[in-house]
Amino acid sequence: MALVGSYVGLSKGLVAVFPVFLLAWLRFGVAALAMPHWLRRADGEAPLSAQDRRLLFWNSFLGNFLFSVCMLYGVLLSSALAAGVVMAAIPAAVALLSRAFLGERLVPRVAAGIGCAVTRVIRGAPGVGAGAGVDASVTCSTSVNFPVHGGCGFTTTTYRPGCV
User: Fold this and answer.
1) Which range is least confidently modeled, 64-78, 107-121, 140-154?
2) How far apart are CA 147 and CA 89, in angstroms?
3) Are 63 and 157 in contact (CB under 8 A)?
4) How many Cβ atoms from other residues are within 10 Å of residue 39's Cβ?
5) Of 157, 154, 159, which Cα lies nearest the Cα of 71?
6) Which stretches of 18-133 are DSSP H helices?
7) How many CB atoms lie within 10 A of CB 114?
8) Which end of the chain is least crowded, N or C, by CB within 10 Å?
């Protein structure tokens, strides 16, 4: 989360200089350069199944493309602080999706954390739509909330029972 938080903060300055899609491609390119050694298959390792390839596609699409593009547009249209506050709701949203789709149990500590995150987002993040009309505020909130859902989709599609 520290990396995500620092990326959100740095992105405000970057979107002022670079186009959003160029930044998203740069993020993808850095990841592609950092991970080639993970692609080599170990001796005797079976190739990926069709289901694993589909999951890998959806993880990449939700976790990289949608997350980056929507987060960058959200930061462009609002403040880095506002985007950071909304992005801090990712763990709470993951917990709720895990409960809904994976049947995981919510312990009281997690429920309290979800309550705190929801309260902060509902109270409003400072700077969302500052100096703009209601339409801009709704666009900012929507743009920043999409990466929250993209991150949740990435996390819940990655999970496989018994593989923890």
Assistant:
1) 140-154
2) 10
3) no
4) 7
5) 154
6) 20-34, 50-60, 67-77, 80-87, 90-102, 108-123
7) 19
8) C
Joined tokens for residue 4: 């995500």
Q: Is the pTM of this model over 0.85?
A: no
CA–CA separation, 122 vs 3, rounded Å? 24
Q: Which two tokens stand for residue 6?
A: 């620092």
pLDDT above 50 for 131: no
Interhelix angle 80-87/2-17, rounded to 10 degrees, is 150
pLDDT band at 108 (very low <50, low <70, confident <90, very high): very high
Q: What one-letter code names the amino acid at 104? A: E
Task: State how far the Cα of 60 lies from the Cα of 66, in Å rounded to an integer.
Answer: 9
Looking up tokens 């670079």, which residue turns up?
A: 18
pLDDT surpasses 70 at 1: no
CA distance 64 to 80: 19
Q: ∠ at Cα 95 (56, 11), nearest 5°?
A: 65
The backbone torsions φ and ψ at residue 39, rounded to the nearest 5 degrees and listed phi first, read -85, -20
Inform me whether the pLDDT recorded for 19 exceeds 70: yes
